[in-house]
Amino acid sequence: MSKPGSVRWLMAHELRLFWRRGKTRPKSGLLLVGLMLALWLLFSFFIFQRIGPGIPPPPFLDGPGDGLVLAAVGVVIAFMGSVMLSSSILAAVDVIYTRNDLDLLLSSPLSPWRILGVRSAAIAIGALPLYAGLLGPPLLWLAIFSSPLWLSSIIFLISLAFAATALALIIVTGLFRLIGPKNTRILAQIFSALAGAGVFLAFQYYNITSGRRGGDDTMTQQQLAALVESLNFDPNAWWLLPSRAFTGDIVSVLIWLVLVGCLFPLGVFVFSRRFVSDAAAASGMGQRKRVTDSRIVGLRGGAMSSVIRKEFRLLKRDPLLLSQIGMQLLYLLPLGFILMRPGGSIPITPQAFVGVLALLSSTLAASLVWITVSAEDAPDLIASAPVSSAMVDRAKLIAALAPVLALMAIPLGALLLRDLAAGLWATAGVLAASTASALIGLWRRVPGSRREFVRRRAKGSVIASLGQAFVAFGISGAVALGAYGLPLIALIPALIAAVILGVLYKPTPDKALEIG
Amino acid sequence: MPRRKEKGFDTMTSGLKVTGLAKSFGGKRAVDGIGFEVQGGELYALLGPNGAGKTTTLRMVAGLLNADAGDVSVFGIDARRDPSAAKQHIAWLPDEPLLYDKLTAWEYLEFVAGLWGVDTATTAKRAEELLRLLGLWENRNDRCETFSRGMKQKAVLAGALIHEPKLLMLDEPLTGLDAAASRLVKDLIRERVAKGAAVILTTHILEVAERMADRIGIIKDGKLLIEGRLDELQARAGAQGQSLEDVFLSLVSQPQAAAEVAAQ
């Protein structure tokens, strides 16, 4: 047992909380994770036992060939780093805004530096289990079957998490200074979504624009060799330092560790120095934020429209939800690039969008309906109101579906102009998929508060999510087949979707009866 | 870092002395030059309408917020110059129970004691005393997430008392407590006062202030309108025989009247 108040003691406390977080997690969940890990360990063992000896041992420092390998590793690192950055930004925002236990910690005689340093380190460490689980086994076997130098990748990943956290702390502190507490939260969420999606988008963009020049997409061996030659990555370039550190170049590992060793304390310094005042500003924010809505018009429109209006307001003021929707739309952008491109060389026709739009509208409707129906903050209030629960449900469905349809109207319009038949199929798909998804969310509701939704970032029951996914696949498959001129075959997925929908049907219990 | 361990501290030393404390948020003066003094062995109640600056004042004393101006002295220690030494003597109990849902009551007390550097043997002894006293002993190994609001409040109070603070600051300590729990908490607070601690509490339950407090300060818009013993306040408000509620309401609703009273 370490000395109370020491860094190790504080870290043990953080890790204990990290381990225990989540809703009284059942033992079975832990077992499942363990089992998956064991299977992954075994599976990757067989892969790397075969291909491991064939992989040239690191470090890769000779010639453009190695340079290209390092560049590829760099892409992977950039992706992981951006995802880590994204989650660290959210975690840093969380530290500022939900800082209840920091009040306790900071009112103790321990130095604030130590407390915030440990908290920051905990953010970094908290990001690691995912990567340890996914990349740990392959890297372990790679070290055994190829070269032990691969083990440096593990050191690299751990330090990468610390670097990402340091950057996140600096970014969040900077945003706080620049745009104030109110906007920081929203912007940080958007920023984190962008950081997560950025690398993906950049590559989509590159793919598409390079496809434009290329003409023929399939490259011959010589062309590939020529490409490598023309790129001519110098494996010793400064920007490949992380890749070299990942692949076990000892000098690069040392330089990298020194860099992170400077960056992390800097991040903690910047963050801590202003933390007390930042946190204080955030705490005052709740009271001073006033929403002036000129459309407060008292009793207009009756119960139905008042429910709809309330849901719209709450949806609009849910920055996390907005950033999630933004994220989903971001991933759709690359498809948009293609659609807008006249006479593209890639054989993607308007028909290809039919299914995608249906799928997307289904996931959007699923998250929105989850929020309006399951994440009702005051279910008792609504149940005690003199309105039928069926009417409330209808209002909530409308509130969830209207934004989806409004969003989808833009791509649907573009599609209709481009290809009328495909556009009509897509419209049918969007309507069917979003409605089905919303209905499932309604039938299989899991009551819980909006707050919980933000905390656990998950939605609803497993059955509902799976059902929504299968029905969405069924419908989008059907309309896609229809758009490609195969309406008879389209009946099969349509039927499957209908059957699943029928199985999931559960009449909503009448609240009045329940209470009586 | 000077760690003062003396047990029976002089009850007549100034426990908490606040002078000219000020804090603004975005141009709005939340606390505007507040000054007051709480002796060791005295219970001081800070009264005021919502948003008057009570909590902000206490947060600055607790070292959770940097003051724009002013001085805070805790049993002779300059809290702004040496926050760590001052915090050693302070317990801060916010209105919302600050508990770790995922820790048991026992683990929570262990943790808080660790933060204040209480040794293990003492921690175990005091934790048991406090948990038994507050009726949480049977629940000591339950996670706090299973607690009712009252139980949480009591667990937090136990946490605040585990390092035997000389200055106890309680923000709305009786909110959400039932009659029995509320009596327990009041008894505990009185006991600390009897042992020579300086206790400062904010409350909106005027009767609590009326019955428990040795002195009362009324603040509004970040300024201390008036302070004194209950009879003094009544006398100065020119409302002999009235309850504190009457005095309070007449003071906070009529700023000019309050100013006149304060000027007397």
Question: Summarize this, please?
Answer:
The complex is a heterodimer of chains A (516) and B (264). Chain A is mainly α and 516 residues long.
- Unreliable spans of chain A: 211-217, 284-299, 454-459, 510-516
- The radius of gyration computed from the alpha-carbon positions of chain A, rounded to a whole number of angstroms, is 26 Å
Which strands sit side by side, in order, in the main sheet of chain B? 6-7-8-3-9-10
Instruction: Summarize the largest interface: chains and residue counts.
Output: A-B, 27 and 36 residues
Question: What percent of residues of chain B are in strands?
Answer: 15-25%
What fold name stands as the CATH topology of the largest domain in chain B? Rossmann fold
Ends apart, CA distance between termini of chain B: 44 Å
The rounded distance between the terminal residues' Cα atoms of chain A is 56 Å
Number of strands of chain A: 0
Mean pLDDT of chain B: 83
The rough form of chain B would be described as globular
Number-wise, the strands of chain B total 10
Q: Please bin the fraction of helical residues of chain B.
A: 25-40%
Largest sheet properties of chain A? none
Topology of chain B as a string of helices (H) and strands (E): EEEHEEHEHHHEHEHEEHHH
Structural class of chain B: alpha/beta
Strand residue percentage of chain A: under 5%
